[in-house]
Amino acid sequence: QPTRHYDAQALWQKDKDHFIHPFTDFSVFHDKGCDLITDSDGIYVSDAHGNRFIDGIAGLWCVNVGHGRAEIGQAMAEQATRMAYFSTFNNLSNAPAAELAAKLAELAPAHLNHVFFSCGGSAANDATIRLVHYYFNRLGKPNKKRILSRRNAYHGTTYLAASLTGIESNNWDFDTLDHLVTHLSEANLYRRPEGMSEADYCDQLVAELEETIERLGADNIAAFIAEPIMGAGGVLMAPKGYHARMQAVCRDNEILFIADEVVTGFGRLGHFFASEAVFDTRPDIINCAKGLSSGYAPLGATLISDDLFEVLGTPQRKGGVLSTGFTYSGHPVSCAAALANIEIMEREGICASVREVGPYLERQLKTLADHETVGDVRGSHFMLAIENVADKATKELLPVEARVGDRVAAEAQKRGLIIRPVGHLNIISPPLIWDREVVDRVVAILDEAFAATT
Ligand code: PLP
Questions:
Q1: 426: which of 88, 115, 197, 232 lies 20 to 30 Å off by Cα?
Q2: Family per UniProt (predicted)?
């Protein structure tokens, strides 16, 4: 295939004039415009000027099998030319959606056998809350409406998902549906109260949940939603046993436990789903997106337990249907991409490779801890972050204006590596195909980048 050449300057101008970029600081964008990423291959992406970078963020936590997989492209092309789209409303279906639903039921914990498709993570979370409300309405418990989420959680940006999101700055000057959501404390082992043991910290977080249920009334609470490891909120690690204990309290109070595995799913922690394999929980619902199709096509999925489906799937009042869904629920091309993606993951043993290379990546990143600003190196397997601080002992942060995360990321990029700055953090969430040799190259670049950030 001949490479398509772009007129980089013309595209830069069009983009600057017309594309409202998500999550973008326009005070910078109006002057600088965009960096156009035009090409990709395996662990690399390239920009319009021909500069090639190691992708340290898998696009946006999603290109799990790596870039340029012709097999996924072919599966999508074949599906698009054979039957690009037809409705899945009512009794209609298509082959990739049916195959994928069954495959997800096979990969998920044994009790999750029913799949609701959406177009991404926000939409999956949004659809989930509607289904949860519907479920309790159908059970004759219409007061069970409130959703417990956590500060610093990220669940997306549809109106409802943004309301679940607990990163304060994400909702600056936006409105949220506060009557539906209560935020508990995040579980943040690094910034737990000074001198408190991990076990006591866990007790404190569980006690907060119990007190909140007591205060609001279990009859008014529908569900608790949590990422197994908080991603965009800063790769925040919970104390040992936290998730299982939170779930036990929820179960005792008929509060559904929703695991948002949009990032942790599809291999990032070494398993297709981390909830049961890593965190010993048995969620009523697991949401996934991103790695589900490795970002080759937009897709989200809500995996629903047999118990819940018994209610959702029983006949409605006369003349009614389960009136929720999207034109693109079960989109054939997206589902074909996901099936090809899963086939690659299984054939290449990608989860096993993450279980082997992930701990090495963690260990090697921790060698950066001697650098002046590095306060914490944390995370698990292919989901990691470095927290920059002004003072390692007090964990005091550098002033926002120092833009330390941006500066480290810029130094890394100059040296051929893209990592993600989020405030004072640098996030590393690579394609799952990094091997030890790539890890060594990446850590050497980061070593130089931190040294150059003064
Ligand atoms: N949930 C989690 C845990 C996420 O990290 C994200 C996106 O980063 C979302 C939901 C939202 O997904 P999307 O951007 O596909 O709507």
A1: 197
A2: Belongs to the class-III pyridoxal-phosphate-dependent aminotransferase family.
pTM of the predicted protein model: 0.97
Element (H, E) at 38: strand 37-41
Q: Which residues line ligand 1 (CB under 6 A)?
A: 120-122, 125, 154-156, 227, 231-232, 260, 262-263, 289
Is the distance from CB of 261 to CB of 273 less than 8 angstroms? yes
The one-letter amino acid code at 64 reads N
> Tokens in use for 232?
């965009």
Distance 295 CA to ligand 1 centre (A): 12
Structural domain spans, the chain: 35-65+350-452, 72-347
Complex ipTM > 0.90: yes
208 closest CA partner among 150, 254, 266? 150
CATH number of this structure's domain 72-347:
3.40.640.10
Domain 35-65+350-452 annotated CATH 3.40.630.30: no
CA-nearest residue, atom 13 of ligand 1: 121
| Alpha-carbon gap, residue 33 to 296, rounded angstroms | 25
Q: How far is the CA of 129 from the centre of ligand 1 (A)?
A: 15
